[in-house]
Amino acid sequence: MSPEIATIVGLVIMFIVATALPINMGAVGFALAFIVGGIWVGTTGKEILAGFPADLFLTLVGITYLFAIAQKNGTIDLLVHWAVKGVRGHIVAIPWVMFIVTAVLTAFGALGPAAVAIIGPVALRFAKQYEINPLMMGLLVIHGAQAGGFSPISVYGGITNQVVQKAGLDVTEMAVFLTSLGFNLLMAFICFFAFGGIALLRRGRAVADEPLIAGVQASSRQFAIEGHGAVVSAGGGTLSNNPQALEEVRINRDHLITLVGLLGLGIAALVYDLNVGLVAITVAVAIALVSPSAQKGAVDGISWSTVLLISGVVTYVAVLQKAGAVDFVGHGVSAIGIPLLGALLVCYVGGIVSAFASSAAVLGATIPLAVPFLMQGQLGAAGVICALAISSTVVDVSPFSTNGALVVASAAKEEREALFRRFLVYSGLVVAFGPLLAWLMFVVPGWM
Q1: Residue 116: which domain range?
Q2: Model confidence, pTM
């Protein structure tokens, strides 16, 4: 069996085993990376570990640790209630605020994972607090990041435009940006109405004396007794949704320190392009040093099972790439003599690979694969490039990609496993139909 085929078979086995048995898929991924990589690919243990996603590992650990501290000292609850007050009680507006904020961040140059790492945990806390479907909330954050991801000054936009210019294709920067924006906005509307948006519209405004989640009434009574500050329970404080009580809340020292830390994280990641994981864990340690009692037990809030799962799968995918399986499939697709079908298959190659690997890397690899049949002049270059760009990034909702993993890891502990499976189902549908929809919308009209 060739290395290419062996690694593809191993990928299928990994999914079957982890689906049929209660075994962490990441653990299976590490084992298969060792077995398949050692026997068929000829990689040593050191070479296998070179594919370990250290950056993603530290990002997941740092972000979940920092926000576990922020949850325990009541800062996240404080932000949640202030934001709800800002939208005047219209809970239905919250998911769209998250979509817009994330889109603006990426449109102005922030990396998608950096924006999701900052907005995702807050958005998931909103979802938990106000009984918004966490799947819908998380998907709007990710699609927001992709909506702004191809602006001319963004990372994805820069990569795409550079490859396009090098190939000598006539595709404008704004064409790619606007098509991605429109496509992800469409996906956001679909997610909103498919996963609870209608119920949110019917809910109307939050009512002061109507608890939005179980336990809020108890928190409100405790607040009335204690009088000031955030009420912090064993699982992280929950403030009352009573507007009058909220007016009396005073920011304490822990809140202020945490807010400054979160602001520092945003500036460091978005303005200075520093590593999100390193900055997050540095901020978390700084808060812990200043207020040790406020972070007690926060390490337990790190999503270790998700970290293992993502790290193992990505490590195996690195072995698959080293075996040449991606190039094997890609070159086979580009050799097809039917340009229209070739464009569709390249879109699928980009989508499937990007669901597990770096979208930036996939963009740089798949666009050159399309150049040979674009030169035949039968297809519009702009439509094909736009379809490839969308196909390679819309699948970032996968829980095995950085964005999807961050959102799943940010969910409440009791929701994490169920949310992971729902993300897996949704991302499977996106991988199956996303490239096809992009092809139908942007490639087929140019051929006709």
Answers
A1: 3-51+75-201+244-248+303-443
A2: 0.73
